[in-house]
Specification:
Number of helices: 5
Helix content: 10-25%
Shape: globular
Radius of gyration: 18 Å
């Protein structure tokens, strides 16, 4: 297949993916922010998230900064900043910050060392835990523990549910298509059916 056709096809087959900006800083103080469509939930206790980093040979500022400092942030990409968020996929030199090349603004919350994205409606402080190499293609599964969460009050329901649709959080279709999901319905926690319920 043509390379671009293959990228578009295979990227789209897994369905809609999360759209997140990962913020890091180097030991020298250079900020970095990059869009990722591979952040996944790995567990709630302890609270851990993972994401796939491309092979280091293809460019690894995010990876290098995380390994240097041990910390990073995950920031949800909303429709308001989607164009600038997508631009962070461009390959800049290590000493060039994507914050300077876009309208995205960095901020530091508490004493956390890595930068958050001011405009992001949901911000997550992460601590590096471990990584796992995927030998087939050289990608790396990065695993981190949630240190703290910052989100707008109206996004959080009484039972802990985070309503992403209220924040206009986007999802990624393929490598470069952005969609705006809408919450339609929540269902209660499921229990096994009894014989009587199966007959209904």
């Amino acid at each position: 297949m043509d390379r671009l056709f293959r990228i578009n096809l295979i990227n789209g087959l897994s369905g809609y993916k999360s759209a997140n900006l990962i913020g890091t800083i180097s030991e020298e103080g250079n900020e970095n922010v990059a869009v990722f469509s591979s952040v996944i939930h790995l567990g709630s206790d302890p609270p851990i998230l993972g994401f796939i980093h491309r092979p280091i040979e293809a460019g690894g500022n995010t990876y290098e900064n995380i390994r240097q400092t041990g910390f990073y942030t995950i920031n949800h990409l909303s429709m308001d900043i989607v164009a600038d968020g997508h631009h962070t996929s461009a390959k800049y030199e290590r000493d060039v910050s994507e914050f300077e090349m876009t309208r995205l603004k960095s901020e530091y919350l508490g004493d956390f060392v890595a930068p958050f994205v001011i405009q992001a409606p949901i911000k997550i402080a992460m601590k590096y835990v471990e990584e796992h190499s995927i030998t087939l293609n050289g990608t790396i599964l990065m695993v981190g523990e949630i240190v703290s969460v910052f989100l707008e009050d109206h996004l959080l329901d009484a039972d802990g549910f985070v309503d992403l649709s209220k924040a206009n959080v986007v999802a990624v279709n393929g490598p470069d298509g952005y969609a705006l999901p809408k919450l339609e319905k929540r269902y209660p926690f499921e229990h096994p059916k009894t014989d009587k319920e199966q007959d209904q």
